[in-house]
Amino acid sequence: MNGLKLPEEFRELILDLQEGRKQAPVPRHAATVVLLRDRDGIEVFMLRRVSSMAFAPGAYVFPGGSVDARDAEYEAGEDWTAWGAAFGATPELAKELVCAAVRETFEEAHVLLAGPSADRIVEDTAPFEADRLALLDRSQSLASFLTARDLVLRSDLLRPWAHWITPAIEPKRYDTRFFMAALPDGQRALDVSTEADKVAWVRPAEALERATAGELFMLPPTVATLQDLTRFKDVAEVLASPREVYVHEPVGRIVDGDPYLVLPDDEHRLKYSDHYGE
Fold first, then answer.
1. Residue ranges of E strands in the chain
2. pTM
3. In whole angstroms, what is the distance from residue 19 CA to residue 11 CA?
4. pLDDT confidence of residue 277
5. What distance in Å separates the CA atoms of residue 134 and residue 185, rounded to the nearest whole number?
6. Could you give the CA distance from residue 223 to residue 70 in angstroms, rounded to a whole number?
7. Alpha helix (H) ranges present in the chain?
8. Max CA separation in the chain (angstroms)
9. Cα(42)–Cα(157) distance, integer angstroms
């Protein structure tokens, strides 16, 4: 069994959910972006969530967050149907997820996947700091920011990678699509997130070793993503890799009398048709 033993206090919750005495919270749609760069091999940008966060305090994560209702406002000639097919989503939700991915990456890492045209990208994000702050306090939407600055969202720089749903035993749940993206030339990922107290560029294998040693706390989706990345020699190979996205949803179970979080593996992954219906 591919699983993680849970503290004893989860036993009652797991049984309550299994027997219908409690209902799991509805997960919120979210987007996560795994920023990559080449430094004699792949490095990935990670943030440590502040200890005061309600969800996963102290965990090392990738930039990302919930979809904002105004992420749907962006209008452009994108093929949202293709994005929806990649992620098992409607075209409208696919647009929101891509826009959330771009917005959250800018808000949390100061990396902006946009440019003055469909074949150019911003090289210096410093002039847009006031815009980033306006996105953070929600006084400006991504669409209004891009329009005011005559910028075009560069969804072509993102690659669909994975889909994880927070287990039902968690009080806060997210239905998260993972994207891969290369750090754009000329841009720097910065420590600007109000939700993180530390950032670092790390090699996937090193991050996994430190997690195993107990130095870094990570959630299962983060670990799985890092494990995926150890198979590639450089960023170009990652972005060019064919990818079939599955739904992964860890489940709380009582196994041999003990509470466990059972993790999805290759034999138990769910395709979109299985999870959502045809």
1. 3-5, 28-38, 42-49, 60-61, 64-66, 114-115, 152-153, 159-165, 174-182, 196-202, 247-248, 251-255, 258-262
2. 0.90
3. 12
4. 31
5. 25
6. 31
7. 10-18, 80-87, 91-109, 129-136, 142-148, 204-212, 220-229, 235-240, 272-276
8. 60
9. 17
pLDDT tens digits for 199-251?
A: 999 999 999 999 988 888 988 899 999 999 999 999 999 999 999 998 999 99
Rounded to the nearest 10 degrees, how much is the dihedral formed by the CA atoms of 123, 77, 134, 109?
Answer: -40
What is the structure's pLDDT at 267? 37
pLDDT in tens, 154-183: 999 999 999 999 999 999 999 999 999 999
**CB of 63 closer than 8 Å to CB of 32:** yes
Alpha-carbon span 179 to 158, nearest angstrom: 6
d(CA 63, CA 24): 26
* Domains contained in the chain, CATH given: 26-241 (3.90.79.10)
Is the Cβ–Cβ distance between 227 and 208 less than 8 Å?
A: yes
Closest CA to 29 of 97, 88, 85: 97
Q: Which residues pair with 61 in a beta bridge?
A: 47
Estimate the crossing angle of helix 220-229 against helix 204-212, to 10 degrees: 140
Residues in the chain: 278
